[in-house]
Design brief:
39% of the residues are buried. The protein contains 7 helices and 16 strands. Helix 3 crosses helix 4. By secondary structure, the chain is of the alpha+beta class. The strands form 4 sheets. Strands 8, 9, 12, 13, 14, 15 and 16 form a 7-stranded antiparallel β-sheet that branches. Strands 1-2-3-7-6 form a 5-stranded antiparallel β-sheet. Strand 4 and strand 5 form a beta hairpin.
Length: 287
């Protein structure tokens, strides 16, 4: 750290430090979690991929909504950010039917209170992207909630604002991803409020940890898709018969290497530069 900082909190992936009353430093580790358990094996450079991709998207979307980023540090995994009062909901948008949205659709024919057409199949593109908020769980899984439950948490005016902004961000990023041969199936965004009451985009943005990225050239609805995220790790852990409680299993070299390669490929295709160029000068993604 180039100046004194106070450690505030540890997440599954991030360490959070306070520089002063107005600024934080977020340090993104190479830890990886699956089924809400942090595994004992790290994925080299994963934290740098997440930090660099978030920085890139913050710069690309600044005209849509302000964000918390102040600077990227030279290690490629640390970012200086504005402190905010975070909203108590996860802002999820889905363009395709996958994950918990697919499970909810199978059970009820709807997702977060939104009725969907009958006969959809897994991974199918939805008629239009939908905003599906979730709770912020301090432990365990976030839970999908409907509009009324989200409005109770943030108020109707703020809810309408985050819905509109989240959908606009998704449309922007999904078009950029499509031009790179990548489908942005769904994503989770987080927002805070600054001292003037303005909505501010925060945390991480359109990364393989917060989004479901699929290669467009192999997309085929009707089942799960190959992806650029930690699904490779989930699939390995699933076939072990692990009970999904701590401690998690160690990962073999081939799973570590395959996961790292997927993260870096996503970075290079979306940002349009070599990952090594980012390591040499992290702020290149902001230009």
């Amino acid at each position: 750290m180039s100046e004194p900082a106070t450690h505030l909190a540890s997440g599954k992936v991030r360490e959070i430090y306070a520089l002063d009353d107005d600024r934080l430093v977020l340090v993104t580790s190479d830890r990886i979690s699956t089924f809400d358990v942090v595994l004992p094996t790290e994925i080299p450079d994963k934290g740098r991929v997440l930090t660099g991709l978030s920085g890139f998207w913050f710069a690309q979307t600044a005209a849509i909504v302000p964000n918390h980023l102040l600077a990227l540090r030279g290690d490629g995994r640390s970012s200086e950010c504005r402190r905010l009062e975070m909203l108590p909901i996860e802002c999820v948008v889905r363009g395709y039917l996958a994950g918990s949205g697919w499970k909810d659709y199978l059970a009820h024919g709807e997702v977060c209170g939104q009725r969907l057409p009958a006969g959809l199949v897994e991974s199918q593109q939805l008629p239009a992207p939908i905003f599906t908020p979730a709770t912020k769980a301090t432990s365990g899984h976030d839970e999908n909630i409907d509009r009324d439950a989200a409005v109770e948490r943030v108020g109707e005016r703020r809810f309408d604002e985050v819905e509109q902004v989240t959908l606009e961000l998704y449309r922007f990023a999904s078009e950029r991803a499509a031009a790179c041969g990548i489908i942005l199936a769904d994503t989770k965004l987080e927002f805070g409020v600054d001292r003037e009451g303005r909505l501010v985009l925060a945390d991480e943005v359109f990364t393989p940890d917060s989004s479901r990225f699929w290669p467009a050239d192999s997309y085929e609805p009707g089942g799960p898709q190959p992806s650029f995220d930690k699904q490779f790790v989930r699939d390995y852990c699933e076939q072990l018969g692990w009970d999904k409680t701590a401690p998690g299993p160690a990962l073999p070299d081939e799973v570590v290497e395959g996961t790292r390669a997927r993260y870096i490929e996503a970075f290079e295709r979306l940002v349009g530069i070599a990952f090594d160029d980012y390591l040499a000068d992290p702020e290149v993604v902001l230009r």
